[in-house]
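For practice. Any example?
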Amino acid sequence: MEHGETNTITVVDEQGNEQLCEILFTFESDEFGKSYVLYYPMGEGDEDEEIDIHASSFIPNEETGDGELSPIETEEEWDLVEEMLNTFLAEQEEE
């Protein structure tokens, strides 16, 4: 995962394909000792269109500003991510 000052990251899949994604939000979990990022491919997210949101844990690299994305491994982590997403979406609707 690479990210700069903007809210975008470049995600590389198993085949080596790069895709520019927009970061929806990030959060840290003391319970799991990890940081998480929720993101979606650029070009999605039009007002009328449902977006495909992806989530990963990540370990930031303090020196380069890059980080390593890792899959979310447990049902408990997925429950936490889903809860955080629902809270985020509820807050967005209130604005």
About this structure: The helical segments are 75-94. The chain has a mean pLDDT of 84.
